């Protein structure tokens, strides 16, 4: 299967899942979304429903964190302003999980990523959900304001 990073699969049917589920390639059959392994995550966290794909972080988490999760925005950014998303993210931060927000920039461009724990920790400790949501949105806006960086030609020409 040839698909560029940050590009929705051509077989994704929003709200319904994979359009070729029964005949999907092995790379898809072998992939196990992180939300499926977390007991507190229900079906509403499916990436095609929530607009967030959760994957284990591809780099070692910073000191003091035992695990890392990358939250890739695959749908509308409005999910970032919901109590549901802020609460889930607060749970990750409180548990010592390094949490990253990853915002794809488009075909042939690197995603922009931000480590969220340090920025959100004071508001989470204060149990201020409004502040947590505001800080998440501020992180998103800062990522969107960064200039786009092209992937090397070898990564684009798959």
Question: Which properties best describe this structure?
Answer:
17% strand; 6 helices; 32% helix; 158 residues; alpha+beta; two-stranded antiparallel ribbon; globular; four-stranded mixed beta sheet
Structure write-up:
By secondary structure, the chain is of the alpha+beta class. The protein has helices at 26-30, 47-50, 83-94, 117-125, 129-145, 153-156; strands spanning 12-13, 17-18, 52-56, 67-73, 97-103, 112-115. The longest helix has 17 residues, at 129-145.
Return the structural class: alpha+beta
- Which sequence of strands runs across the widest sheet? 3-4-5-6
The proportion of residues in beta strands is 15-25%
Order of helices and strands: EEHHEEHEEHHH
- Nearest-integer average pLDDT: 85
Distance N terminus to C terminus? 10 Å
Shape: globular
The proportion of residues forming helix, as a percent range, comes to 25-40%
> Tally the helices: what do you get?
6
What integer value in Å does the Rg equal?
16 Å
Tell me the total number of β-strands: 6
Largest sheet: 4 strands, mixed
Please mark out the parts with pLDDT under 50 across 5 or more consecutive residues, or reply none.
none
Q: Can you describe this structure in just a few lines?
A:
The protein has helices at residues 26-30, 47-50, 83-94, 117-125, 129-145, 153-156, and strands at 12-13, 17-18, 52-56, 67-73, 97-103, 112-115.
Detail the topology: elements first, then pairings.
Layout: E1 12-13, E2 17-18, H1 26-30, H2 47-50, E3 52-56, E4 67-73, H3 83-94, E5 97-103, E6 112-115, H4 117-125, H5 129-145, H6 153-156
Parallel strand pairs: 4-5
Antiparallel strand pairs: 1-2, 3-4, 5-6
């Amino acid at each position: 299967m040839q698909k560029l990073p940050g590009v929705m699969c051509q077989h994704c049917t929003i709200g319904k899942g994979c359009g070729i589920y029964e005949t999907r390639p092995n790379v898809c059959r072998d992939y196990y979304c992180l939300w499926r392994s977390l007991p507190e995550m229900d079906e509403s966290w499916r990436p095609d429903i929530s607009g967030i794909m959760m994957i284990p972080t591809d780099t070692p988490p910073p000191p003091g964190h035992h695990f890392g999760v990358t939250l890739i925005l695959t749908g509308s950014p409005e999910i970032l302003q919901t109590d549901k998303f802020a609460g889930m993210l607060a749970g990750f931060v409180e548990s010592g999980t390094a949490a990253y927000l990853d915002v794809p920039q488009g075909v042939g461009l690197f995603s922009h990523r931000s480590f969220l724990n340090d920025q959100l920790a004071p508001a989470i400790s204060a149990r201020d959900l409004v502040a947590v949501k505001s800080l998440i949105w501020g992180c998103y806006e800062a990522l969107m304001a960064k200039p786009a960086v092209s992937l090397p030609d070898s990564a684009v020409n798959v």
